Structure formats: structure tokens, C-alpha cells
Amino acid sequence: MQFGKVENPGKVDFTLPADHGGTLNVLGSRKQKSEPDVYVGCAKWNRNDLKGFYPRGTKDELTYYSTQFNSIELNATFYNIPGVQQVETWRDKTPGDFKFFPKITNIISHYKRLNGVAPLVEEYCSNISNFEMKLGMVFLQMPDNFTSKNSDKLKHFVENFPAGIPLAVELRNTHWFNDPQISSELYDLLEKNHATNVIVDAAGRRDLLHMRLTTPTAFVRYVGANHPSDYTRLDKWVERLAGWMENGLENLYFFIHQNIEKESPLLAAHFIKKLNERCGLNVRGPGQNGLF
User: Fold this and answer.
1) Would you list the DSSP string of 166-204?
2) pTM over cut 0.85
3) Which of 109, 143, 139 is nearest to 3 (CA)?
4) DSSP 3-state of 32
5) Alpha-carbon span 168 to 196, nearest angstrom
6) Which domain holds residue 179?
7) Residue 188 counted as domain residue
8) What domain count does the chain have?
9) CATH number at residue 74
10) Are the C-beta atoms of residues 173 and 201 closer than 8 Å to each other?
């Protein structure tokens, strides 16, 4: 993953910003507090990307991957709308506690830029729904040049998205978050429609680290820099998330990327171990029972 890549990660200030004031309001609105549902994984299961992760002789990458992690951020769906048979094949290769978090296909987000996409959204959601109980949440990722001038398109998309499919939204233009009026309208839109605001933590895009939840769900896309600071950054996230859990976080979806993806499973294993220890959880991950 080249998004947010920098030449000298050691010079970046990786301090997590303070929580947005609206975040605690969203979490505090939860009536009953219990242990959150936590899903942590990588973005891919491809053997060429995750070199060294798969034991020699592994015949099916997804089958093995799903014994090590409880979820996957499914980027394969960004390039094509998967057919029903493909979705069912992925679904049936994984254990009962596994969940998929598929990205919405780029013809909807990047090529048509949300214009006249109702038939495509219907096809996408109809096919994706065949994950059944293994569907976690889909997410819409818009390109950097999708600015607040397109707010009407985003509003129409979010308000008309099928209610039965949980939706998260990732925006990459800085003005969505750094202009008070624009951000206020965005957060209001997402809150009213129960859409989750994706948080992106990447070395070269600190402007996207808004720390604003719009539902009691934290959907975090963490991009490592293949640098020792990747681990200390994750430790800081553990502390922040522990605080959110204490204040009523219901769901945590945390997915780890790397500029060179082969290290993603190592980072994810570290994060799961630290999170389990800090929050008293039992999230499944590599390194348990002598694995990996």
C-alpha cells in the first residue's frame, strides 16, 4: 500500500490527536455497556503479499488465514463486483466466527463518483449479502479529489444506501474534516444515517486522523511505514481504544496495512496481543497456541 507513504517515517509526529468532542457524545449515548465485538485483520490474504506468513504446503490461503485472524478487510471487491458464487466460496472457506469487511467497488466510487449508481449499488449489496452472518461492514472509499463540493452526491448515497447492509465511509480530502462547517454537516449526515466514519492513520496523511466517531463503532485503517515506530504507534492505539471501550464502544474493526504488506501479520499479531492484555479480551490472532 503506497497511500500515505513517506521517505523518513522517523521524522513524523505520530501523536494521536485528542478525541473530537462529538466522539464521547456518541459513545455516551449507549444505554448498556458490555464487552465490544472486536475484529482485527489484514487487508489481503494473497501469498505473494504476505511472504513468510503461510507454512510450506499451504493449499488454500484464505482457509489458513482465517484460522489465524477473525476478519479480513476485503480489498478484492474494490476492483470488481464479486458474483454470488464467489462470495459463497469465500464465505464457506472460513470458520463461523470470521467476518468480511468488503470495500465498495471502484466503478461506484472512483469512476462514476456516486453519479447514477443505484443499479450498481443494488447489485453489489445483493451479492455481498450472501456473506450472510459473516458480513461485517462494507466501506465506501472516495478518492482524494472528491471534495465537499460533492456533498449532495454523498448525502444522496448515504441516505439511500440499503438499510440492511452496515456502511462505513472513508473520505480523503482534508476539507471534509478541517473546515468546521463542512465537518459538522458531514458528521450530522453520518450520525443520522447510522453510517460509521472511517479513521485513517497513515504516516503521510496526518490530516485524515480526525478521531471523530459517528456511531459506537470504530473502523480504523492503520497504515504502517515499515519502521520500528509502527509498533509504538499501535501501542498508543491500544490505550486510546481502551478508553473508548470504557466509555461505551460497541464494535472495533481494526485493519492493518503496510507499504510492504509482508509485515502486516506481524503488526496485527502484536496489536491483538497488546489489546487482549490491556482490555481483558480474547481476540483470536497469530501467536496463540504456538501458531505463527
Assistant:
1) -EEEE---THHHHSHHHHHHHHHHHHHTT-EE-EEEETT
2) yes
3) 143
4) coil
5) 4
6) 9-287
7) yes
8) 1
9) 3.20.20.410
10) no
